[in-house]
Amino acid sequence: MKTKNEAEAIGKLFWQKSFFAGKDLAAPPSHPTRNDAPKEHPGLTDSSEYWLNRLFAGIGPNQQPGDVMRVFKKGRIVLEIPVRGLAPVTLIGRHRSADLRLESNKMAPYHAVILHDSGKFYLESLDAENGLYLNRKKLPLKKRIQLYDGILIDLPGYRLAFSLAGAPPVGEENQPLSEPDAVPDFFYSPPVAPTPLRIHLIENLERLKTWNPGLTRLRVVDILDETHDCKTFRLMPVQPLLFCYKPGQYVTFILNVNGREVRRSYSLSSSPSRPHLLEITVKRVPDGLVSNWFCNQIKPGDELTVTGPLGHFTCFASSSRKLLFIGAGSGIVPILSMLRWIADTAAEVDVKLLASFKSPQEIIFRKELEMLSARTGRFQVAFTLTSSWSGTEHWTGFTGRINAPMLNLFVPDLIERDVFLCGPDPFAQSLSGILRDMGYDMSRYHTESFGSGRSAPPAAKTGGIAQLRGTLHKVRFVKSGITVDTDEHTTLLELAEAHGIEIDYSCRSGSCGECEVKCRGQVSIGPHCEIDEKTRKAGFVYTCSSTAASDLELDI
Fold first, then answer.
1. CB 515, CB 493: distance < 8 Å
2. Average confidence score pLDDT of the chain
3. What pLDDT does 238 receive?
4. 435 with 368, same domain?
5. Which domain holds residue 449?
6. For residues 511 and 311, is the Cβ–Cβ distance under 8 A?
7. Residue 100 phi, psi dihedral angles, 5° rounding
8. pLDDT one-digit tens code per residue, 381-438
9. How many angstroms separate the CA atoms of 421 and 122, rounded?
10. Residue 190, in any domain of the structure
11. Judgement on whether residues 27 and 151 belong to the same structural domain of the protein
12. Given a cut of 90, is residue 368 above it in pLDDT?
């Protein structure tokens, strides 16, 4: 009767001759086994068994169990085998008699073999079709490689990682193989570490929805200090989507300020050429409810609800190859959106910007605007300062309010340009008068002013207007069944709110049309209302910008 050592030697000689001489596998006289080998091969589908085995073996999660071979599947350890206990021959494959059985349809019945001899471990590939990879390099068939500490063996669907701290140094036969090959998809692929670079926005581009008008949840991802009293809030959608809008438009925020709902509209400073991010820029207003709340309370990570995009102030309406932008204070915000679009899309237009601020320290987006002027050949930017200031900067630009001589000097070809102007009401009224006096064609003049309408809070629902003055009229809300008195100063939206009648609204400045209602009777329309003639002739009014001029009936 053969001893154990003799049986192992015979088995070793058989497998070496059968596999490594290129012969087909024939049934051996007896399959070489280890006395301690389990009768059933372990399952490799769940890593929980691996950790439980470590726990009951008294091996802590950070404790190294010695020289081991770890089997990985889908980025997880599913088996750990002490290599010192391996038999002289360890077959790896999907055959039920393999010593290490790995289930994969691309795995050969006997895919590879590990040989253990005199304290050294060797690996050979037995599969000519798919083979295996050593440190991501294809291992030639029948080439014996000595295993060493840290070596990685990739098979279809699996990875073998060896920790062999006590292994002898490798010899010349283990010199580097060929250059890395393209590893087939069905081989083990190491899991990609999560990246903070949001690559899913490109990899899944075709799956992203496009921003549509309506309510959208946004998350604050960054806040930038533009000046001492002005901040830019960078916003990303809670659910990934592509922002699609016209440069120069705005959004309306639906906020809860001090326990009550407040809506406030802010122009977008971002450009649709950068569709993964929205930016708004908020300048503090003395005693302003929302602007100060925004700058004091909002922090990265907060979520906000907006509706939009809204507004008609955009360069998309222009066919001119020459444009002049004029801005004052925070009126530069929608203008920057349009300038970014023009620069990002390399639009073939000649652009000039004249922007008015009180002092150098209050110039919003100064560095970016100067960069656009320096790096874009068709851009020219100039600033004018309207107040004295303290500081060391030597100012060489324009000073004083924008006037006709300044325009003639900076824009001698004014009559050839479309003009886009944004700023406070007095600024807009002054510039429109100057342009008319200069003989400019006002059909090419586009404006958006920041009057009281856009920032006005909703009227309190007190059950009626506290004080009516002057000429009074009757207003009948047909669907609500209510008839009330009003004067010629209260907007129809404020009147409805005061009597508990809900009308949808957004901008409160006559831009968006959300408060449009069918109306019978005569109304006075505010100067900044953007309702078109076709809509007006159809009998509709924007209630935020209309007051009664006769008795009225509203279909609401």
1. yes
2. 82
3. 94
4. yes
5. 315-454
6. yes
7. -120, 105
8. 999 999 887 777 788 899 999 999 999 999 999 999 999 999 988 899 899 999 999 9
9. 78
10. no
11. yes
12. yes
Among residues 434, 454, 474, the one where a domain terminates is: 454
Enclosing H/E stretch for 257 = strand 250-257
Structure-token pair, residue 319: 């066919």
- Are 286 and 300 within one domain? yes
Distance CA 203, CA 276 (A): 13
> Is residue 489 classed as helix, strand or coil in its secondary structure?
coil
Amino acid at 338: M
Which tokens hold the place of 460? 């309190």
Within 8 A by CB and 6+ apart from 278, the residues are 218, 234, 235, 236, 243, 251, 268, 270
One domain, residues 254 and 322? no
Residue 3, classed as helix, strand or coil, is coil
Tokens 């409805």 label which residue? 496
SS3 325: strand
Residues 374 and 257 in one domain: no
Q: Give the DSSP letter string of 144-207.
A: -EE--TT-EEEEBTEEEEEE-TTPPPP-GGGS--SSPP---TTB--PPPPP-TT-THHHHTGGG
Q: What is the CATH number of the domain that holds 413?
A: 3.40.50.80
Distance CA 155, CA 188 (A): 6
Question: How many other CB atoms are found less than 10 A from the CB of residue 293?
Answer: 17
- Rounded CA gap, 174 and 165, in Å? 17
Q: What is the pLDDT of residue 184?
A: 79
Same domain, 165 and 17: yes
Residue 297 C-alpha from the chain's centroid = 23
* Cβ-proximal residues to 379 (8 Å cutoff; 6+ apart), any chain: 339, 343, 351, 352, 353, 372, 373
**186 occurs within a structural domain:** no
pLDDT of residue 168: 57
CA separation (Å) from 505 to 90, 238, 486, 497? 76, 24, 20, 11
- Three-state DSSP class for 463? coil
H-assigned helices in 389-491 = 404-410, 425-437, 452-455
User: CATH number for the domain including 75?
Assistant: 2.60.200.20
Q: What are phi and psi of 159, to 5 degrees?
A: -135, 140
> Are 353 and 496 within one domain?
no
* Same domain? 357 vs 281: no
Residue 64 lies in a domain: yes
Cβ atoms of 70 and 88 within 8 Å: the answer is no
From the list 493, 507, 498, the residue with the least C-alpha distance to 554 is 493
Contacts for 502 with CB less than 8 Å, ≥ 6 apart: 496
pLDDT band at 324 (very low <50, low <70, confident <90, very high): very high
